[in-house]
Write a structure and sequence with these properties.
The chain is about 35% helix and about 15% strand. It contains nine helices and six strands. Helix 2 packs across helix 3, helix 7 crosses helix 8 and helix 8 packs across helix 9.
Length: about 240
């Protein structure tokens, strides 16, 4: 029995969101870039082609494409600012705005907060963690983070005093040859959220890039290392840690 062929979309069968995305890619942008512009995961952009999604982003994509072609704008944060003004929220059958299916990032009155992202969100800059970091900075909190990478991505062995943990209790080794390492804690004082937020701003809001840059600058990972899990934790500093 001959193998079944998967249906391949053609230019004639693409929906408007996919056609606009094609035009942006022809202008030099990647699907990951488009995802960052509309503040969504790259997987959603792929679903413009495979699952006929993206109708809510058509006005935003049109405005972005016009800004690229007419004004020559290529800066992703600037294009994202244009897109957000023209993104239409989904509506329910009753006509009310649909809730966005995303995990809220909250900080309690005592300063305790946690945000986690996986591979898809990391690929698009871990944007869901940015509000957590910004709020922590506004409130003068401390923060710590945990990263998961392939073991070979780290420059120092687990438990090395050259690396931040210094002891193995802050390291989790996985069966898939990856390793989680935590940097900062309430015991060590952690990091100043204001300084960390400034790093994120300097990376144009890309939390993944800011964390990767810190790990590389401090000599902890190889330049081509890929972060596959990221967690940020916040807390109220003690008077002695100020």
């Amino acid at each position: 029995m001959p193998a079944r062929r998967k249906h391949q979309a053609t230019p004639e069968t693409l929906n408007e969101a996919a056609r606009l995305s094609d035009q942006l890619q022809q202008a030099g942008f990647t699907k990951r870039d488009i995802a960052r512009i509309i503040d969504r995961d790259p997987s959603l952009v792929s679903q413009f082609y495979t699952k006929n999604k993206g109708a809510a982003f058509v006005p935003a994509l049109r405005e972005v494409l016009a800004a690229v072609e007419a004004a020559g704008i290529t800066d992703l944060p600037e294009l994202a600012a244009i897109a957000v003004r023209h993104t239409q929220r989904r509506t329910t059958t009753s006509g009310t705005r649909a809730r966005v299916r995303t995990k809220a990032v909250l900080i309690t009155p005592t300063g305790s907060g946690t945000g986690r992202v996986g591979a898809q969100a990391i690929a698009s800059g871990s944007s869901r963690l940015r509000p957590l970091i910004a709020e922590a900075a506004r409130r003068g909190l401390r923060l710590a983070f945990t990263v998961r990478l392939a073991k070979t991505s780290f420059l120092h062995p687990s438990g090395s005093r050259t690396d931040s943990p210094g002891v193995r209790r802050d390291v989790i080794q996985r069966a898939d040859h990856t390793e989680e390492r935590s940097y900062g804690s309430a015991q060590t004082g952690g990091f100043d959220a204001v300084d960390f937020a400034a790093r994120v701003d300097a990376a144009h809001g890309d939390v993944t890039a800011a964390v990767h840059q810190w790990l590389q600058e401090t000599g902890r990972i190889h330049p081509d290392a890929q972060i596959i899990h990221l967690e940020v934790r916040t807390w109220q500093p003690r008077l002695s840690s100020r």
